[in-house]
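All the exercises in this workshop are built on plain-text protein records. The record below serves as our worked example for the rest of this section.
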Amino acid sequence: MRLLDDPIELDLDFMQNPHTVYDRLRAGAPVRQAVMPRGLRVWLVSGYAEARTLLADPRLSKDNKRIGELFASRITGSGGPAASSLIAEHMLNSDPPDHTRLRKLVNKAFTARTVSRLRPRIEQITDELLDQVAAAGSVDLLESFAFPLPITVICELLGIPTGDRESFRVWSNTIVSSVSPEQLRRHSAELAAYLQELIADKRANPTQDLLSDLTHVSDEGDRLSEVELISMAFLLLVAGHETTVNLIGNGVLGLLENPDQLAALRADPSLLPGAIEEFLRFQGPVNIATLRFTAEPVRVGDVEIPEGEFVMISLLAANRDGERFAEPHKLDITRPAGGHLAFGHGIHYCVGAPLARLEAEIALGRLLNRFGEIVLDGEPERLSWRDSTLMRGLEALPVRVR
């Protein structure tokens, strides 16, 4: 792979070991062209300073309609966006003033008080899942713990029947992975149709949940439209569990691969909040942030990105930049917290960050308190990472506990 000449290809090898590629990119070209798995040519950003600047640069647009037009002009055949438009009209795919309006309405329903009220229920779900893990002794920690915890929480928070969570897992995994456009189109349409029916029921029969609140929330007479509601429900559902699944899984793997850090955390549980921040920095749940494009030419260091170009910003790469973090490839749970970009930066900073932090703190704290011994069940070399440029997460994490 010629990293400093031709555009790099973000292939399956890259997804299994992106840090090696990012190290070489940051050293030679922290902003350079790349080719995504489905053929889209983009500018890839891997340096911390460049990433932080561009995440907050208003000249980089996320307007979904214009992104669709750019796709149509750049890619022929099946390479363009295939997700249902019903799930694309959310605040992550919009610019001010639309983004400002949507975020304000969501913030009225998704408050810090709403999140803090969830603690007892998250603790209860966690303990019930750990009972099952204890009974089994040997489990895939993702399947048995890291996935069911956040999907149960977000389903209960939104007011979605927990029995439907397996369907959501299939739909969500498709949407964040490098699948065929046909599969993406089919699954996103199924998800949109489900949410449309669910929202209609919430409108007619509101209950005490976030989706009912979003259906009826208003600000000076302004409400979310039908399409905005469906898209917002999709965003909260997928973002509300995908990131936390990977945060828990990647955090546990980091501790198992660094026994000294595991021992330090066991010896001093008060280090846990800072440890969560270090897990987010060291192996965050998001690899490359969602798509942006240049609304006008943008100069970054020695590079000028022309107008109308797609830009992909790697949060994973930025958080391992040695210019910002000393010994970036070392997991250090005593590292001063803060500064990482795992939840983004600027107006699109993750609205669910407090919930993800709360879930991870409860999950990891109770997991370590419950089991004096947690070891990998198998060779570390057999672990594989998901086929996704968006998410950074394992396919499975087999462990034995005692």
Remarks:
- Residues 137 and 401 are 5 Å apart (CA to CA).
- The mean pLDDT is 90.
